Amino acid sequence: MTNRPPTLSVIVPCYNIESYVPETVTSLVNNERDDFEFIFVEDRSTKDKTYEALLTLTKRLKNSRVIRHEENGGLATARNTGIDASEGRYLTFLDGDDWLAPGYLADLVDAIERFDVDFVRTDHVQVTGIERAVHRAPEGRRHTPLDPRSSILPVDDTTMVDYPYAWAGVYHRRLLDKGMLRFHDGLKTAEDRPWIWDLHRRADSYAVASLRGVFYRRGVASSLTQIGDVRQLDFFRSFDLVLAELAEDPEVGRLRKKALRNYCVVIAHQLLSRGRFERSIAARLKQMAAEALGRMSEDELEEALVGMGEERVYMLRRIRGGMKGVAA
Questions:
Q1: Which residues, at least 6 apart from 251, have a Cβ–Cβ distance to it below 8 Å?
Q2: Which residues lie closer than 8 Å to 230 by C-beta, 6 or more apart?
Q3: Domain Glycosyltransferase 2-like spans what residues (predicted)?
Q4: Helix or strand or coil: residue 31?
């Protein structure tokens, strides 16, 4: 690498993913350029030798380094460690158990330079076992600069704030200078939610590119989405952060409705799948759900639940109590 800062920093948080490291690193070898840097953050794995595997395998990858946390901090903190260590003009993320198509990173850099925007979002490929499915970013306007705010609403449709995956895009370093791009330290799950809301509220420009080079592995046993423990309940803190940060927004009246609907959708999902939790955690989930729903006014909750589906509406009504007039 020359003395000039790298064009792109790739931040890869890793935790208990030893068996996936060879494929992840190989995909980055197939994407490397002299002006790219690769930062692996090993978040104190407890069940395998992820750290040792990274030290060995990254010898193949130019301009790479492995940073090891002294104690486990969670995905949000691991990403922040990588951000703090990065020097690239642009930043992107890759989870340690996922991989990239050859040449994808060059295409990503080309897109953000061509559109000259604060960030670019992409599609991705979801991998479940041997099955693969393309998931499109929920914005029909492609390959043109957009106002990020214009992709938050409508309330009752899937929009870009419902597509929070940090690894599905690339971000200009100037966002850091404006106080964006970092994650809320310590969030164990749903860490992307306040992050994506902040980007779409406060950044000046973005674009959506029809790139499908990220392969996102679903159903990984070590993934937090597969584990029914107390860390899952951090989604309450995550959405409370979204609502708190919206309070100062000039369009809070319109945007809060969208955030509340998102919150209710996630609460309902967690309640309907609470069988994976231990009894004490399931009880805590119900208590926190009742408290969160109780902080919403009657009118706000009625509007949030309209059209959400009979099963979810019934569940949320029952947890909160009342709400008999809400249409499913």
A1: 149
A2: 281, 284
A3: 9-136
A4: coil
Cα(77)–Cα(224) distance, integer angstroms: 15
What is the pLDDT at residue 227?
Answer: 52
- The distance in angstroms from the start CA to the end CA of the chain is 58
* C-alpha distances out from residue 5 to 2, 12, 22, Å: 8, 19, 27
pLDDT of residue 174: 98
- Residue ranges in the chain whose pLDDT is less than 70: 1-2, 220-228, 322-328
* Cα–Cα distance for residue pair 188/224, rounded to 1 Å: 8
Rounded Cα distance between 260 and 240, Å, is 10
Beta pairing class for 119-122 and 169-172 = antiparallel
- Is residue 188 a contact partner of residue 100, using CB atoms and an 8 Å limit? no
Q: Which amino acid is at 194?
A: P
Q: Going by DSSP bridges, is the β-strand pair 99-100/214-217 parallel, antiparallel, or unpaired?
A: antiparallel
- Give the dihedral sign, CA 235/68/172/60: negative
What's the pLDDT tens digit per position in 109-131?
999 999 999 999 999 999 999 99
